[in-house]
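Open question from group meeting: does this chain pack into something compact, or does most of it stay loose? Before anyone orders reagents, we agreed to write out a predicted structure and look at it together. Recording both the input and the output here so the notebook holds the full record.
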Amino acid sequence: MDFNLNNLVSSRVLDPCTPFPENLQQPEMRHIAVFEPENPGFVEALGEQTLLFIPHGCLCRLTAEHIQLLAERSCAVVRYRDDASPAKSPDALRPAIPQFLIPEGSDVSATISLCYKLAYSGMQRLAEASLETMERLSKELLHHKGQGESIIRIAAELLECPVAFVTSDFHLQSTHDTSGYLVLNPFCTEDSFNWESALENFQLSSAAYHSCLAEGFNGNPMSGYLCRNEYCRKQGCRIFIFPITDAGNCYGYLLLSLDERVKMLSPERSIKIQQILAIIKFEIIKSDEIAHTVNRYYDFLLDELVESEQTDFRKLMQKYGLVRKVIFDEYYVLIAGRTPQATSDTFFHELLTSQQFNALYDRLVTALGTINFFLFERKDYIVTMLPRQLVPRGKPDFELVISLYQEFLQDQYQGAGISDIVPTEQVRQGYLQALKALAISQNSLGKAPCYYGELGILRFFFDHSSQVDFTPLLHLYQEYIQPIIDYDNRHSGDLLPTLTAYITCCASPSAICNALFIHKNTLYARLNKISQILGKNLSDSETVFNLSLGLKIQTLIQAGILDSELDP
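Structure tokens returned:
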């Protein structure tokens, strides 16, 4: 029997003197005390939900301040049957505090002893509930390695209601909807609870926050949210939502579907929930640590790959025990940069937590439809090795991956570089190529991604430092290309397409004319004009080389990778 006021009355341990206040439908008691009028601070020292016995003749010693304090702490008063002096009518307590009488013919000490016995019995049941919960969950952790689905199944069995676990952004991870538990709810119209329907278009902001939905084992309130959307109304239920937190981080939520008439959870259920939350949190943190350890192995793998000219990729995978993935023959290397940290030994996970890093990996798995790629962290970079088969469309596929990087890094994102296709034994070369492309991307407008294969001869002008001086290249561009562009803009001319065709067609007049659909005389006139504007001989090999390089720079400017304006 629970130690609450209703049970105390129904079992004839106490007789009611006044009706319960409206806000106390099933008031639980936690403590028992006997009023000590000689102690001036006695009432102030009482705990919440105390059943207070008032000795004979002491009812009048309760002041108005005492009564207010007892009401605020949800206490109840037991007085002697013959203690009803005119000086202190029982009605003085009636507005806020439940009052009881010791049954006629009952011994006072025996009544107090019986109350203690009931209280002890309630504590024993809580201890048994706690022991049952820990025993069930411990066995699950030991024998089944604490898989999320099995923990939620046991939670549903222990709590006798449909249970779900969702991520911090309310994506369903695991549920248990045993139909038998819904018998408790006479308003249900379905055989099982549909969590997908219950959480469709759900927003936590729409749920009502409550500072106390249940009371934990230590007496502290367990806060959470209550939700009743349209689906819940049809089912005659409400959803209790308990956050799973640690050190300010929210790992997800435990959800319970209960009869809509339940507004406060019973002590037994509260104890079980508290322990279930602790176990789930433990498993999440443990999984995070395991994942972080695996990520560290990946980091070591990448170190060996990029530090060696020739490396047997398959043997390295076996060395580090990373054998789940299919090894392809050819890969692209993609490197995304982030804002450099103040110190060189600051690890990437200080910005991107292991949980976030794992979330990024999961998003990539979903986007690419496979786990057969590699995701690393190294210094100020995220490094991805993508098999050629995963990016058959080229740029569109890379843009999808890069968009995920931008989403996770946000304002820390500092461009991306993509290598050519390299065989597995030459990952180092691909890594260095991607770094060169990244150096250009980091200096581009809008941090536009840069593809090493599009750099052409420009790849020889850059190292993999982010500090790249583009001034000499821009000077060359402004000397050889910008005057042609300016002339075309003023005269609506076609000199730049002609110059481009001249370089592309290796100065072959017939090939140029065929490409541009013009007469040779027109071609010669345009070439003479170009020569006059630049003051250069187009037959000179050095001039042709500089024009070719200038056009390549112009391509990067058009792509937004370079800024055509020189710094003053």
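Observations to bring back to the group:
Confidence is low (pLDDT under 50) at residues 85-90, 180-185, 342-351.
The first strand starts at residue 15 and ends at 16.
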